[in-house]
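Hi R.,

Here's the chain you asked about this morning:
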Amino acid sequence: MILSAIKMKKGKGKKGFTLIEVLLVIGILAILAAVVIVAINPARQLSQAKNSQRWSNVNTVLNAVYQYAVDNNGSIPSAITTDTTEICKAATGCTGLIDLSTLTTNERYLVSLPVDPGCPTGCDANGSGYNIFRTTNNRITVTAPKAELGSTISVTR
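And the predicted structure, written out as tokens:
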């Protein structure tokens, strides 16, 4: 009987959590959420995804140029100069840009020229965001000058 009276006395006043307990749990959850967000770093993930797309696009353009050269007895498109110049994304309005529309004619080498994921910001109105040039030995270099995270994206063949 004494034991049951003690049990009743203990259980009578406890009906919920105290304010300090609730605040402590919220604080711990906030710290864990901050750690997870920093570890995941969505901005860095997005930049890495854009750079992966840029690598793919640079290789796509370079492969198309070389497939064109294979089909034309080693001649590369005549529009490619020794000066680093941005590639035009359309067949018209390419003043000051490299016109590679020969690669997209009848969708033979490319359906369309790829465009940098960061464009139109910082790109010419008709530009693709990728640069191309040839060396005196007819080696072709395609670059992505808008690469993020301090990366250099450039492929030469």
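The longest helix spans residues 42-71.

Let me know if you need anything else.
M.
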